[in-house]
Amino acid sequence: MQGSGRSAVFPSYESFLGIVTTMIEQYAKFMKMASETRWRGDVASLNYIETSTLWRQEHNGYSHQNPALIGSLMALPKHSIRLFFPADANSAVSVMAHCLRSKNYVNLIVGAKAPTKVWLDVEETERHCLAGASVWRRYSTDDGMNPDVVLVGIGVEVTHEVVAASAILRNEGVRVRVVNVVDLMILGQYGHHPHALTEDAFNSVFTADKPVFINFHGYPKEVAALLFGRKSNGNGSRFTIHGYEEEGTTTTPYSMLRLNHATRFDLAHEAVLKVAVDQPDHPIATRAHVLGSYWKHHLREHEKYTIEQ
């Protein structure tokens, strides 16, 4: 427990952690004031783990779908808050090891409790988590060089859809760069959080001018708020953010993604339309509408199948 001087780990259903939000906020504010004193030493970080997240609460239903704690923590003193979204088991282990070694933070780790695909090997994972985000070259076109679009995953299930969307687009001749973000606060304007990337570092990962499609675990507005101050964001049209739209019920796991427009087909559809508009001479331009219609039909067939079953 925290009072013993050891690390505190608090796992919970994602929707239930909202019950203790005010206690987390009080502790973060206490840590801010404590850091301003000379006599108080370092203490082990307080670590919260969100499991049974909204994307796999299809059995309990709408009442158990709530990622609001992310936004609550983003509003707290920046030097004491860390938010992590490991996309697989290897990254979860790396993030947890870091959090248990850390001092004076409130760490939030958001992840799935069900078995999932492992995307990177151990060495790749360590470098990825240290950086906070990286280009996943093996799932990109030509290691991510000269992309038409950038696809970004932040979270477990949504990253799976990003990788699948990349495969679909690459098969259709669209050049894709896949990026995964494990440390959410790197996205914010440089100087607003200790982990925020410089503008040059940000552009080296996300490019300076290509359309970016983000699939986020929580509410899209949280990522939009972080990107607001970025110079390369321009008027905001370069980044399209998918995430939880407060659409849910007791249904199948994939239907949760479909209801919130976070499937591989939603991403691929928007991507080909954007490429067709920005690059009218691109080979995909004459097929964008046909492909998009097919993918929308595929989602409609999935909806009918779910209802019938």
Provide the fold topology:
Elements: E1 8-13, H1 21-35, E2 46-51, H2 69-74, E3 81-84, H3 89-101, E4 106-110, H4 122-131, E5 133-135, E6 149-154, H5 156-171, E7 176-181, H6 199-206, E8 212-216, H7 220-227, E9 239-242, H8 253-259, H9 264-278, H10 288-308
Parallel strand pairs: 1-2, 2-4, 3-4, 6-7, 6-8, 8-9
Antiparallel strand pairs: 5-7
Helix pairs in contact: 3-4, 5-9, 9-10
Characterization of the model:
The protein is α/β, with parallel strands linked by helices. It contains ten helices and nine strands. It has a five-stranded mixed beta sheet, with helices on both faces. It has a four-stranded parallel beta sheet with strand order 1-2-4-3, with helices on both faces. α3 (about 90-100) crosses α4 and α5 (about 155-170) packs across α9 (about 265-280). The mean pLDDT is about 95.
How would you summarize what this structure contains?
This protein is an alpha/beta fold. It contains ten helices and nine strands. It has a single domain, classed as Rossmann fold (3-Layer(aba) Sandwich).
